[in-house]
Amino acid sequence: MKHPWLYLLYLVYCAEAGVYLALVPWTVLWVPMVFAWPEGVRAVLIGGTARGAVSAFGVLMIAVCGVDLVRFCRALRAA
Hints:
The protein has about 80 residues and is mainly α. Helices cover about 80% and strands about 0% of the residues. The chain has one domain (about 5-79).
């Protein structure tokens, strides 16, 4: 592995973005962000379906980060 610190930085980013996307739609931070959108989009984003979709994408990012972390550890052991 040529630059392990760069790959580790990628893993930290994926984990942080995944946690953010998984949790923020269900907090008070979501509502002010929704009001920045036009009225038609706002009605969709305030609903549970959009919140669930964003959260599911965050969980998917966390899962991808976990798989990449396992690959990273295996590559470090092999080197």
